[in-house]
């Protein structure tokens, strides 16, 4: 009973997003040194290491999980770990690794890889600036979205919304609206979809289109999602239309 209690406390610690990063690896090592690790436990381990920005250790732990379990969940946790560390290239590679392992990527797999494309960076070209510059790989995100197939994936809008968001980050707001149009033809069009499309327009300073989509969502009977409010306010603010932004905020 005491061993079970200690093990439970370890996983409670690893599941807690506020746990100190520097202690996560130490606890993760204790877990693996005390008996077999189940697939859901490996998933928690990898996710915790990812939140502590230890993507290398996340991938090392994934290798041990693969040797014991045939399951996509540890892969998904590793995909998110790479995304959190802006290693979009590794996320895309992991997606292909899932297929090579004779597993089927699910909606979470594609969503994590697509979102990682939005975190891509390149070395700065400005003299004296060390921080890399954002360079969202929206075209790659679109290709990954197009690869997502099958009844389960087609009925899940999460990868679609992620692809829309990456297009918005990359300034390809027209592509984001093209993706949104595919959702509008389906019965599961949502307030979240409207909010993501509005956000894409806001990032491109297309305030008129953002307002049009906001009004359209209201006419369809949706209670505006927080993303919708934020997107319209940001669109007005980016065009220095402060009075309009304030009216939406109020």
TrEMBL record:
Q: Which UniProt keywords apply?
A: Repeat
| Alphabetical list of InterPro entries matching this protein | PPR_rpt (IPR002885), TPR-like_helical_dom_sf (IPR011990)
Spell out the protein name for this chain: Pentacotripeptide-repeat region of PRORP domain-containing protein
């Amino acid at each position: 009973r005491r061993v079970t209690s200690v093990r439970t406390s370890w996983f409670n610690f690893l599941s807690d997003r506020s746990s100190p990063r520097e202690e996560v690896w130490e606890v993760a090592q204790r877990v693996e040194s005390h008996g077999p690790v189940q697939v859901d436990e490996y998933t928690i381990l990898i996710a915790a290491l990812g939140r502590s920005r230890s993507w290398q250790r996340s991938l090392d732990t994934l290798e041990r999980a693969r040797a014991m379990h045939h399951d996509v969940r540890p892969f998904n946790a590793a995909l998110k770990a790479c995304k959190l560390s802006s290693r979009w290239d590794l996320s895309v590679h992991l997606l292909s690794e899932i297929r090579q392992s004779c597993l089927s990527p699910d909606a979470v797999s594609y969503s994590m890889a697509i979102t990682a494309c939005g975190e891509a960076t390149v070395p700065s070209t400005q003299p004296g600036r060390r921080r890399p510059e954002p360079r969202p790989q929206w075209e790659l995100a679109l290709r990954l979205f197009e690869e997502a197939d099958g009844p389960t994936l087609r009925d899940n809008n999460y990868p679609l919304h992620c692809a829309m968001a990456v297009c918005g980050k990359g300034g390809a707001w027209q592509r984001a609206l093209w993706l949104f149009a595919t959702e509008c033809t389906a019965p599961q069009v949502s307030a979240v979809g409207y909010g993501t499309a509005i956000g894409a327009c806001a990032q491109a300073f297309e305030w008129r289109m953002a307002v049009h989509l906001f009004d359209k969502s209201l006419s369809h009977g949706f209670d505006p999602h927080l993303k919708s409010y934020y997107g319209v306010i940001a669109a007005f603010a980016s065009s220095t239309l402060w009075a309009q932004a304030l009216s939406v905020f109020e």
